[in-house]
Write a structure and sequence with these properties.
alpha+beta; 3-stranded antiparallel beta sheet; two-stranded antiparallel sheet
Length: 117
């Protein structure tokens, strides 16, 4: 009977040790998964920040290009819109501004219908 009790106690002790080892391994795995998830979140957040910064730069660049294009339609101080046609002034002489097709460039107010520069 004593041998049986000792064997049972030894089995219980081994089972307890095995359970503690299994528990420790599960805890270590969970800790590693949490660290991995935290690192993934950090990487995703950094990529999102980079994307947003790049997007802001692209939008600013596009805005600057839009402003440049708009400015190319605006008559300068040596030009005027007369009877719907852009006229270039140089001193006391006046000439029609000529478009890509060789014809006069139409205008309205201080804007031409095609780029002047």
């Amino acid at each position: 009977m004593r041998d049986s009790a000792r064997a049972a106690a030894l089995d219980a002790q081994q089972a307890k040790a095995h359970a503690e080892q299994y528990h420790a391994q599960l805890a270590a795995n969970l800790k590693q998964q949490r660290e991995d998830l935290s690192n993934t979140y950090q990487q995703v957040n950094e990529q999102a920040r980079q994307y947003q910064a790049e997007q802001a730069m692209r939008l600013d660049k596009q805005h600057q290009e839009d402003l440049r294009v708009q400015a190319s339609y605006r008559l300068d101080q040596n030009q005027q819109c007369a009877d719907g046609i852009v006229i270039n002034r140089s001193g006391s002489s006046f000439t029609q501004a000529v478009g890509k097709d060789g014809g006069p460039i139409p205008c309205k107010g201080d804007l031409a219908t095609e780029p002047l520069r």
